[in-house]
Write a structure and sequence with these properties.
By secondary structure, the chain is mainly beta. It has six helices and 19 strands. The strands form two sheets. Strands 1, 2, 3, 4, 5, 6, 7, 8, 9, 10, 11, 12 and 13 form a 13-stranded mixed sheet that branches.
């Protein structure tokens, strides 16, 4: 991986480290024009993306998402402020000087949330709550989750985890953020996934990823969009990455969760029983498009035990179905991409997979 440290502003879905939040909307940022670009094969472009030198970037990323199941509302819950990230359109200002200097800014109404990174120092700032959270980054590379607002980092995760289990090809050339780009496609070869295809848009000069989108199984149009609406390969001023908590702000420190997971966003507490420094990694079954994350027994009970954590189960309590596996009743939630199964012992199975895969995995685990 080309970036020294990955970390994220996670949108909690009540299922631990599972954070692939896809959407059901056609991207509007890709121009209908088809630019003429130098000929390249899919395998060559894939290698170019993996070997590309990170360029400084200043731009605006637009996310279009609709992860909530039809008819489900989070209004009135402690997750209501996150509804727009699960179903709607959002814009993020992004500055990147290098792999160790990064900033993302989200502005909503009269407030903003910022992630500042400069070397091993990182801060989350929430102007609405006047809270500043200092992030204690690990000393080893690649020990935290991908930053969801950067198409480059999201694409790195797609390539690493999905390309070995898909068919890689090229689509029609296009424009993203006004820059001529290739369309690198990864089509799923695994029938049990809810994702059929991922598109990665790559600029033709520096091989930087400018956008990603995804297609749900059974759909013919792109389903998730995270693309630059405007972008320039210009180095931001060093002052962009510097942050000092203002006078009167509440300041706290936060350590990353287990390897591969993300920091919780400022203003949202981890579910009861989940520590910011927990050492227990979530187990996985399968691989590629059919990877399933498996929590520890009792995770669902901890998730719904007290306080604001109760609302993390609202997706299940409002949209759940009941299915029977090995004679036992399980709770099942289906969204456009992410499916989850809660076993009788409180263990949660979740992934971008169909119910049949979750049922097979539950059977493998003995549905304890």
């Amino acid at each position: 991986m080309r970036y020294g440290k990955y970390f994220g502003l996670a949108v909690p879905l009540g299922i631990g480290a599972v954070s692939l939040a896809f959407a059901a909307t056609t991207p509007s940022l890709v121009s209908a024009q088809t630019p003429s670009l130098p000929s390249v094969t899919a395998s060559q472009l894939l290698g170019d993306v993996l070997g590309a030198v990170p360029q400084p970037v200043t731009g605006t990323v637009q996310e279009i998402s609709q992860i909530l199941p039809s008819g489900v509302s989070l209004g009135g819950s402690s997750l209501s402020s996150l509804s727009q990230f699960l179903s709607g359109t959002n814009s993020f200002n992004v500055w990147r000087a290098s792999s160790s200097e990064y900033r993302v800014q989200y502005q909503g109404g009269q407030s903003e949330q910022d992630l500042y990174v400069s070397g091993k120092s990182a801060w989350l700032w929430d102007s609405a709550t006047q809270k500043a959270t200092q992030l204690n980054l690990p000393s080893s590379p690649g020990t935290t989750g991908a930053l969801g607002a950067d198409p480059q980092m999201v694409a790195d995760q797609f390539i690493q985890n999905l390309a070995p289990y898909g068919r890689v090809s090229l689509g029609a050339n296009t424009f993203v953020g006004g820059i001529a780009s290739y369309d690198l496609k990864i089509q799923s070869l695994q029938s049990g996934s809810t994702v059929s295809q991922v598109n990665i848009y790559v600029d033709s000069q520096y091989n930087q990823v400018l956008g990603v989108d995804a297609v749900a199984s059974g759909s013919s149009s792109p389903s998730f969009s995270l693309e630059y609406s405007k972008v320039a390969f210009t180095a931001p001023s060093s002052s962009v990455f510097q942050f000092t908590p203002p006078s009167g702000a509440t300041v706290k420190s936060l350590t990353p969760m287990n390897s591969g997971s993300a920091f919780m966003p400022s203003g949202h507490n981890a579910p009861s029983g989940v520590s910011g420094s927990t050492k227990t990694a979530m187990a996985t079954l399968g691989a590629g498009f059919e990877k399933v994350f498996v929590s520890q027994p009792g995770a669902f009970a901890k998730l719904t035990s007290s306080g604001s954590a109760k609302s993390y189960s609202q997706l299940l309590t409002e949209a759940e179905q009941q299915v029977t596996v090995l004679g036992q009743t399980d709770q099942y939630l289906s969204t456009p991409f992410l499916d989850a199964l809660v076993l009788p012992d409180g263990k949660i199975l979740a992934g971008t997979v169909k119910l049949s895969v979750l049922e097979a995995d539950a059977t493998l685990l003995g549905n304890a």
